[in-house]
Amino acid sequence: MTRTLRLLAAVLVAATALTGCGSSAERGAIPDRGYPPAQAALAAMKGKVLATGPNGEQPASASSITLTPGEIEQVKDKKATAAIVMHYTGDGWTDSQVAGLRQQFGELGIEVIAVTDAGFQPDRQVSNIETILARDPDIIVSIPADPVATAGAYEQAAAAGVKLVFMDNVPQGMQAGRDYVSAVSADNVGNGVVAAHLMADALGGRGEIGVVYHEADFKVTRQRLEGFENTIKQDYPDIHIVDRKGVTGPDFAGQAQAAATAIMVKHQDLAGIWGAWDVPTEGIIAAARAIDRSNLAVTTEDLGPNVAIALASREYVTGLGAQRPFDQGVTEAKLAAYSLIDKQAPPYVALDALPVTHDNVLDAWREVYRSDPPEQLVESFNGGQ
Question: Under a CB-based contact definition with an 8 Å cutoff, are residues 381 and 362 in contact?
Fold first, then answer.
C-alpha cells in the first residue's frame, strides 16, 4: 500500500472513532449557503496566474516547456544524474512532486541517484546538499527549507557546475540564468485568492473568520496568506478577520490545533478558519472536532489526502485551492534537461490554481495526482452526499 493510501486509511479509522456512525450533518457538516459574487469571481480566475517569480519575473506557462524528439535524444546521450533535495517528504504534495520528477527523468534517461528529506530543518538540508555533492550529480532539483540559511550550500553546488532547478522557493541572492536554471511554482497568490472566494461562498459573504498562517520567511506561503487576506478585505466587507496566529513547525498540525483552539475559544461567533496548507489544516479540523464547533467552515491550499477526505465527506473543509505537484515535477525535470543541452529556459514557470469543492474533488484528485482517486476517498464522497 502506498504512503498516501496508508494515510487515507488511517484518517478514515480516526474519523470513525471520533464521529461514530452518524450522518454528515451530525459529524460537522458545514452549511451549504452559496454566494453568487464569489462564484463569479472563481469562474473569472480560470487559467489565470496572479503570482510573479522570486525576483518579480512574469510567469511562463508549464505547457510552454517542451522538448522535441531530437532534443530528448541529446539529453539521453548525456547519461546525466540528478538528485532531489526536499525540505520534507511524506505528504501528498511532496510524494506527487517526486513522482512527477522520477517519471520525467526516467523518460529522459536521467538517473535519480538520491531523494533527501530535511524534516524542514535548514541545517539538515545543508548537510544533505553537501552529501549529495560528494556524489557529483549533474542536476539538483530542490526546495529550500529556508532561503537564507541554505543559500551558501546552493551557491557551493552552483560553483561546482551543478545545474539547479528550484520548486516554489529560491535561495536568497541567487539569480535565474546565472546561478540556477529556473524556478517552478504553483500560483500561490492565486491559490490564496481561490480559498478566499471559497470561504465567502461557504459563509454567504458574511461572518467572522480566523487565519492560521506559516510564520516563516517562505515566499510561497507568504503569497498564499497575502492572496487570501487581501481578497477578503477588498472583496468581502462583511467578512472580518478577527484573529490570526502563526505556526513555525515542524509539528505543523499540532501547532495549528493549538492555534485554532485558542481562536475559537476567544471568538464564540467564529464562522470559519483558513489554513496555510493541508497539514496545518488537519490540526484546525482536529481542534473543531475536539470542541464541537460543527458549523465551522475551513478553506486551505493543497489537496492532501486527509483534507480531501474531509472535503469529500462535507466535514469542515468547504473548499481549497489545489496545486498540481505531479505536473510541477514533470516541468522541473524538463527544465533541468534544458540546461544539459544549453536550451534557453524562462526564469519562472507557474501553474494556475485549481479550485476544489466537494462536487469536483474526485476529478480534482485525478488532475492533481494523475491517478484515480483511492477507494477510501470515493467511499467518503459517496457517504457525504
Answer: yes
Look at residue 220 in the predicted model and tell me its pLDDT. Answer: 85
Taking the CA atoms of residue 373, residue 379, residue 380 and residue 385 in that order, the dihedral angle to the nearest 10 degrees is 110
Q: Name 322's bridge partners.
A: 354
Alpha helices for 237-304 (secondary structure H): 252-266, 278-290
For residue 3, the model assigns a pLDDT of 36
DSSP letters, 181-233, are SEEEEE-HHHHHHHHHHHHHHHHTT-EEEEEEEE-SS-HHHHHHHHHHHHHHH
Confidence (pLDDT) at 323: 92
Three-class SS state of 273: strand
The three grid cell numbers given for residue 78, joined into one nine-digit string: 548525456
Is residue 372 a contact partner of residue 366, using CB atoms and an 8 Å limit?
Answer: yes
The parts of the chain modelled with pLDDT lower than 50 are 1-28
Tell me which H or E stretch contains 130. Answer: helix 122-133
Residue from 35, 33, 32 nearest 43 by CA? 35
pTM score: 0.80
Could you tell me how far CA 200 lies from the centroid of its own chain? 21
